[in-house]
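Thread: quick sanity check before group meeting

JM: Hey all, I'm pulling together slides for Thursday and realized we never actually wrote out the predicted structure for the chain we discussed last week. Dropping the sequence here so it's in one place. If anyone has concerns about the input, flag it before I start.
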Amino acid sequence: MIKSQEIIIYSGRRWLLIITFMAVTVLLLWRVIDLQVLRNDFLRNHGDARSLRVVQVPAHRGAIVDRNNEPLAISTPVESVWAEPHKVLTEKNNIAKLAAAIGMDERFLLQLLQDRIGREFVYLKRHITPDQARIVESLSIAGIHLQREYKRYYPAGEVTSHIIGFTNIDDVGQEGLELAYDHWLRGEPGKKRVLKDRLGHIVKDVENIHSASPGQQLILSIDRRVQYLAYRELKSAVAYHQARGGSLVMLDSVTGEIMAMVGQPSYNPNNRSGFKSDYYRNRAVTDVFEPGSTLKPFTIAAALLSGLYTPASKIETSPGYFKVSNHTIRDVRNYGNINVSDTIKKSSNVAASKIALSLGPRKLWDLYSRVGFGESTSSGFPGESAGIFNNYNNWSEVELATISFGHGISVTMLQLARAYSVIAAGGLLKPISFQRVNEPVTGKRVLAAELVQQVKDMLETVVQPGGTGQRAAVKGYRVAGKTGTAHKAIRGGYAEDRYMSLFAGMAPASDPRLVMVVVIDEPQRGQHYGGQVAAPVFAKVMEGALRILDIPPDDLPSLDGQVLMVENTRQGLQGIGQ
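JM (edit): ok, ran it. Output follows.
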């Protein structure tokens, strides 16, 4: 009896176990069917939502190149590190390794993540090195990601910094042409759908939604070779004269293109740490100054245009000074009875003032306005100044006299260079361009060709023996130009011991191609005249630029009484002046 009961109990347990296994099997089968068949689409969509992502494809910024396609600003791909703080903080032991990899303080990194724990995206380090990126990737830390970005690099460094400017860390233009042409240079990011793993790493590109469009290339008028030469000579002169600073602008008088523009002090846009924002300013375009005697050629042009004077007309300057109201105007010495041409050659303030007073304010104002003083050059450079040039109705007799030799009017270097380009271009005012010009430029006629030829002839005498600008002479070329020395304006008047030293000129004078203005701000070491300080810089840069650009000489020595003629070709120029 007992044995029969045990058999029954055993048999019941066996069936219970079998039924249980069968029930579990049925449930598992049902679950498989439910997941794989009935709810397949629902689960797949949720899975995709956790692994498929739409990410931005960065577009690199357009390159900036010089007129010969030499790079001046390029974008290079870099990686940036970003984090999902709540994921990273689940394994705090990884923070020390991460901090070491990206060069951050461990405590600072931990605090940064804790303060932003509610965010889904936090930048930890922008633009890390390739080695750092490889280490971060090898750590495979949950919540840590790399993002491809682009970093701007400037091959010419401080040589072109005042023209090119720079971008911020987001590759947006902040200064210079990077800012002016930001809309042109900036690319349009793309989008793509990718598959990510549990750590957030992209494991597969699934679909290209929208392709990235890179920014457009910007071709400048600048010649990097001439720019480097100008920068080197200007920096050397500023250092030698212990000056506060300096600037140089060179134009192509045929096209209106800016061939070179440099300034001191400068900065390296690839490493701006420690530099003052004041260094970023392009003084040749934004700052104004009184041009001093470099304005006299335009006073003489107004005199010739009036018909009251010719180059041979006489002006009495004895005894070397004269009074206008209560103001005394002086020359360096008593030049006596000189002609209009000698007014330029000797740089006589007395003669220029007497001419201006005889003309009246309107004639002088009209001539200055014709060549562009008092208005922006419309170069498009950010922060360009229009200068300070009051209407002639407000001029006193003293102002009329002093404006004739460049005091009481303020201009930019670019304005002054453009005005001299009118003389170089035979009376044509041409638009200024930072971009390479590929088509012929006609310009607007503002002065008669015969008149500017007379002024140009006078400017040649400045560089010849007896002139104030002999140090601006260039061997093998005829040079026309004008020196200038101006007291710096200060509150309440002028500083007696602070000067701006200038030289403005053109070459070759027979058919001017290049126009250049050099300004040295507050030179020391006992020299301050434009002919002593600025003219030698002009000569060195102009000589090098003429040869770099293969511009033929126009003042070759005679051979057996005959002038050596040189064909205007590269072959004909080989060996000259070497």
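AS: nice. The CA atoms of residues 112 and 572 lie 68 Å apart. The chain is about 35% helix and 20% strand.
JM: adding both to the slides.
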